[in-house]
Amino acid sequence: MLRFLYGSGHFRHLSDILWRPFMKTPARSSAVLFFFIFLFFGAFLSTRLLDFAAAPMLQGGTAHKPVEIRKKPLIKVEYPLNCTAVSMKQTCPRNYPTAFSPEDPDRTSPAECPHNFRWIHEDLRPWMKNGITREMVERAKRTANFRLVILNGRAYVEKYERAFQTRDVFTLWGILQLLRKYPGKVPDLELMFDCVDWPVIRSNDYRAPNATAPPPLFRYCGDDATLDIVFPDWSFWGWPEINIKPWETLLKDLKEGNNRSIWMKREPHAYWKGNPAVAKTRQDLLKCNLSDQQDWNARIYAQDWIRESQEGYKQSNLASQCTHRYKIYIEGSAWSVSQKYILACDSMTLLVNPHYYDFFTRSLMPVHHYWPIREDDKCRSIKFAVDWGNRHKQKAQLIGKAASDFIQGDLKMENVYDYMFHLLNEYAKLLRFKPTVSENAVELCSERLACGAQGLKKKFMIESMVMYPSDDASPCIMPPPFSPLELQTFLKRKVNSIKQVKAWEKKFWEDQNM
Fold first, then answer.
1. How far, in Å, CA of 499 to CA of 504, rounded?
2. What separation in angstroms does the CA of 407 have from each of 34, 339, 345, 415?
3. 26-30, Cβ contacts within 8 angstroms, sequence gap of 24 or more
4. What are phi and psi of 216, to 5 degrees?
């Protein structure tokens, strides 16, 4: 059709009629040509804009809705166990990355770490001024279960003493998972680790003017009279001897258990279940149980782990024990791993005055996260706490909720790994020597521990294994140390809160005797 029009005499004649009046002078010709070009582009742009605006309306949307561009989902490359390499070559696989940078440009910046990370600075303060020498590390060997060396993102272990059950194995497993989570991020270091409960580096031995510097020794707990460096305990990756699941799994179970039990409909008593044989203070707690002569508002149950293992752990499911408004925490021979399970229950925790702390408990505040119980008068103290809670149910419920929120948030597994990372990173900064692998050390990897494991030991390792590097390039941001005033204010607040409860309790019993 166009060829016909352009080639016909009628079309040429018509165009001459239209254009001839405008072509009498060169100046006028240029102006006319510019005018028509302007009209052409204006019409073109108008039609494009109309099409763009009309398209969403034709599809049932609105003209103001922006076009949604779907991002390509990030593909996570998993690195499962490679047991073939270990069995055939007797060496650790080399396929896992030693460095990693996430490719997501839209990832958010890391948040600041929780409050309890500030205690890392306090635990390392004895070595802040002069650092840590090899001689200091060697002196920590006296009670250590193993020496850990990390070089170029790989772990090497020299064992000295066998730990109780599988404490050392699951502690090392946890460290290996940290290396998998943050490949290439953990610095070179060398340390000694003691898996026994009781801290042994007494601060009084190193206070004299000419005293040597204390040896840096890692363990699971400390107290106010010692300088041991506290580290997350083995049970975060599972405790197969008593069928306690890895923490990430158990934390979900505990949350579901809380949702199955409405707080106001829970048993209005204090609950404790554990092994009383490990400490005199626990045996003393048995006196607070219900009897024909007295009801101290406590329901105490002795746990027989031998019988429980024979019966398939049917009565020791932690997620099914969140059925009372109040739960009692009491230390064993030292600190107890049970504290995190008790705090996670939404119940108001009745915490018998502790002597030890682990890596997170120093940040707990009395009357906010728990209710303090007198160690020297447990039964009366428990009865008062339960009576107070049943008279102030909403306040008691809020205390229980604050504790479980702390556990579900600040103590989620991601933060456990980040605590480990920052503690090891700050420790490595203090070393004044180059870490080396000794002749008796062996390289350790996930395959060496898990491939030959059996039963619950292997099950928990597989369940808690880090399968791919972290989505984040870095862990949470390390908070600054306490200033002297901040630390003093925080500790004073804790002391005053406990004093206030003791005053209420004293008045309560004085009124009872009137």
1. 9
2. 74, 10, 9, 10
3. none
4. -80, 120
Indicate the DSSP class of residue 492.
H
**Residues 6 or more apart whose Cβ sits within 8 Å of residue 66:** none
Is residue 182 within 8 A of residue 469, CB to CB? The reply is yes
CA distance 338 to 254: 13
Tokens at 105, concatenated: 């440009």
- Cα distance between residue 390 and residue 492, in whole Å: 28
Residue 403 to residue 399: CA distance in whole angstroms: 6
Task: Look at strands 146-151 and 348-352 and give their pairing.
Answer: unpaired
Q: In this structure, what are the phi and psi dihedrals at residue 232, rounded to the nearest 5 degrees?
A: -55, 135
Q: Let me know: does 372 contact 318? Beta carbons within 8 Å.
A: no
pTM for the model stands at 0.84
Residue 453 CA, distance from chain mean position:
26
Tens digit of each residue's pLDDT (9 = 90 or more) over 425-442: 999 999 999 999 999 999
Cα distances from 441 to residues 92, 148, 155, 158, 225, in angstroms, run 14, 9, 10, 4, 33
Query: Exposure pattern of 253-289 as b/e (b: 16+ CB <10 Å)?
Result: bbbebbeebebeebebbbbbbbbbeebebbebbeebb
Angle between helices 455-463 and 167-181 (to 10 degrees): 20
Cβ-contact 468, 78 below 8 angstroms: yes
- At 318-357, the pLDDT tens digits run 888 899 999 999 999 999 999 999 999 999 999 999 999 9
